[in-house]
Design a protein that fits this description.
Layout lengths: L14 H15 L5 H15 L4 E6 L7 E7 L17 E3 L1 H9 L3 E3 L11 H4 L4 E9 L2 E10 L10 H45 L10 E8 L7 E7 L5 E8 L3 H15 L9 H20 L3 E9 L4 E7 L5 E3 L6 E3 L4 E2 L14 E4 L5 E5 L1 H4 L10 H10 L5 H16 L8 E8 L8 E7 L20 E8 L11 E4 L29 E4 L8 E4 L5 E3 L16 E3 L16 E5 L5 E2 L2 E5 L2
Helix pairs in contact: 2-5, 5-6, 6-7
Length: 599
Amino acid sequence: MAAVADFFEITPRNWRDRIAVSTDMMRELSRYADPDELYHVYARRMSQLYPTARQVSVSRRGLESPLFRVTRFNLWKDQLNPYRDTHRLPVLSGGVVADLLYGDEPRVIDDLAIHPHDPASDFLGGQGSLLAIPLFDSGVAHNMIIVTREERGAFRREQVPELVWMTNLFSRAMQTLMLSDRLRDAYDSADFELKAIADLQNSLLPSAVPQVPGLDVAVHYRTANHAGGDYYDFLPLPDGKLGVLVADASGHGTPAAVMMAITHTLAHSTPEPPTKPGAFLGYLNDHLARRYTQVSGNFVTAFYGVFDPAARTLTYAAAGHVPARLSRGGESHWRPLMAAHRLPLGVQAVGELYPEQTVKFDPADRLVLFTDGIADVVDPAGDPFGYDRLDAVLSHAPNSAAGVVAGVLEALDDFADGSAPSDDRTLVAVRGTSLVSGSPWRGRFDQTAANRPDEIGQDLDERHAEPGAYDFDVAPPPVPGRAADHQLAAAGEQPQFQQRDRGLRRRGEVHRHHRRAVQPVQFPLDLPAKQGVVDRLHPGRVPLVPPGVQDGDGQVRQRFFDGRLPRLGPAHLDRPGEEHGPLAVGQEKRGGRFEGASH
């Protein structure tokens, strides 16, 4: 758009042209975010609206009177960027420019006379008139723009006020851009450092979930920012035991991450394997309190448990941590482990004692460890998820460790509905499984199509009647008389299917909660007939009756394997649930084979 010759003449006849020029200029300026580029666009536009011979920008920022720095000059062949090339800008002292800059006032000089020895003679020599516009920051004219014309008396004083406020508004916009640039640079630098800290922190965490016979483990870990104070660890211990540590350092971000790294270092520097949770937490507390937390006021909450799959026990101690949740035998009720709790690590001086508690941890038992960031997740209204909702979610969680973690995370995501996490989140789930040990008996497990429903007096659901036969091993109990120690494992990775088409002999009355096929279990052994006890809480599971194992009342207490699974991997027999009376399992010798029918 062509320049308006009388842009600064405020008369009724030129208002449309002024609006058009102003709009076009603001639209162009809005496209630039770089301060230096924005300045050159503004200078070009102003030279069209308000032509001058020379434009000099000077600054006194960081200097003492009468020093000043020349930051821009329109006649320089190589224009410098004053934001990056400050060290290359000339610094002068005294003279006319110093008087103008330190005067903190707009000035118009109609008859300009510059002495040849004046420091600014190279910039202002030969000019007839001058206009100086101070640029204020915090009430002080740290910068100034000086424009000149060759003719004398060339600047009309009635136009000066509009020039002053226009130029100062542009200066404020430039300062905002410069601050944004500096903030962005600082953020990028800090972000880079935080990412480096986060990478270092992640390297301290376990690289994989431990594969421990007798335990099924799953974990979720997420920091609110790049780095955080949550910490979990798996410590392999002698005799097949596993130590699981979950900790939460006070605070957030880098300070908490540093405390987390210190805790990790201490946890891996114990003189002996940390098989005693109480002694282990005492060791951490002594070193944290002695060297790190007493001055800073930081602390660390922690839960440490030692799982012993062979003894089927969990021994734990806690230091101010949120109570873990325990579920027995896959049941929906979860109870908090409230015993063996003491102050957080680093609060009490050296010598704090942390008691231990030992509980049974049988196959199908589940334990969930977490930090308070799980319960502190908030919805868009700011309401926290809380422990009651967590317990409700756990009551409907799948049996596997991974299923428990996935169920909780899904509930958290639904509850948060896109809200950013405000705290770090750690969730560890452990499920007991059975160990495979001893010299196995070899057998065959048949899944037979339900082709004779009349023999059991009830309709069958063919969805659970998957034909085929699987080989399996049944390990004898390590302690005679403990049927709970029987275990089942796959004899081969690839099951061999074998279609059967024959009826099943019904023995006794079979009660079922669901319609399903009768499935025989066959052992290639000459086993004595036994009376079994069926768990009706797990309909469709096959009772296994190994020889010579019974409780004091003479009845076999059996574990069950869900024969409806299409594949058999390393599996175990779940704990018995509620017992509903005896069932004659249809045992009968047939050429050295044993048959039994499940409900």
